[in-house]
Amino acid sequence: MKKQTTRNVKIIIPAIIVLIIAGIAYMLLTHFRLIPKTSYTAEDFGIATVKSTVDYNHNGTDDYTDILLGARKDAQNKPKYDGKYWAGGYPPDDIGVCTDVVWRAFKNAGYSLKDMVDNDIKAHIEDYPRVGGKRDSNIDFRRVPNLKVFFTKYGISLTLDPTEIDQWQPGDIVTYGSTHIAIVSDKRNKDGIPFIIHNSGQPLREEDALILNTEISGHFRFDTSKLDESMLIPFE
Predict the structure, then answer these.
(1) Share of the chain above pLDDT 90, in %
(2) Does an H or E element contain 54, and which?
(3) pLDDT confidence bin for 23, thresholds 50/70/90
(4) Which residue(s) pair with 220 in the sheet?
(5) Does residue 89 register a pLDDT over 90?
(6) How far out from the chain centre does Cα 147 lie?
(7) Are 181 and 175 within 8 A, CB to CB?
(8) What is 117-165 written as a DSSP string?
(9) What angle do CA 202, 203, 207 make, to 5 degrees?
(10) DSSP reduced 3-state for 115
(11) How much is the pTM?
């Protein structure tokens, strides 16, 4: 009996040690954003997912879902973080920064965010202090302060409080100070707070990071139905 007990102890103790090490490793990997955390859906929290009434590119998918899926494509592509200037404005698919996630997301819904921002700057340059009175269509749409102005003017402004979880919906746009921008995911953490899709050069581009070190400065939903059709430019 004593031999059996000793044998069991020899088996159990190493197993416990392995489990403890595995648990610590998992916590460290998730803490440093190297592997994804467990995610949940809006339905898990009794939250209805908001769908756009608009399908701008007529592909059978509403705008908000298209924006979400476009951002996710960029996240899965993992472009190298590089914000250098590109003639023509658009960097290649394997290059990008946080603002490139956004125009690519809008491209997936059929919109040319670059041209829409440029047109508004042309018409209302005084609204865009980051431009400094000198337009450059190759870069203006890739600057967070300019996108924040654009979405403040033409998006629906929503809560900045991440704990109001039902107010955060897939395809929403969120800005951090004047330096970072992201698209809200349809995945959520254990508290119902949504993940974001963004690019700051991190290993995971879709992650539980709505609450970052930088304060949330804007939360917008782009509702095309509220805009004059002349403002909307398709991506060619």
Answers:
(1) 80
(2) none
(3) very low
(4) 157, 173
(5) yes
(6) 14
(7) yes
(8) HHHHHHH-GGG-GGGTT---TTTGGG-HHHHHHHHHHHSEE----TT-G
(9) 80
(10) helix
(11) 0.86
Looking at the DSSP bridge assignments, the partners of residue 79 are: none
Helix locations, the chain, DSSP H:
2-31, 63-77, 98-108, 113-123, 144-154
201 by DSSP, 3-state: which?
A: coil
| For residue 28, pLDDT beyond 60 | no
Phi, psi of 181 (to 5 degrees): -145, 150
Give the full edge-to-edge strand order of the sheet including 156-157.
Answer: 156-157, 216-221, 173-176, 180-188, 194-197, 206-207
Structure tokens at 193: 């707070």
- Give the pLDDT score at 227: 87
Hey, which residues does 174 pair with through a beta bridge? Answer: 182, 219
Question: How far is C-alpha 65 from the chain's CA centre?
Answer: 13
User: What Rg value do the Cα atoms of the chain yield, rounded?
Assistant: 22
Q: What gap in Å lies between CA 201 and CA 83, rounded to an integer?
A: 11
Contact between 63 and 109 (Cβ < 8 Å): yes
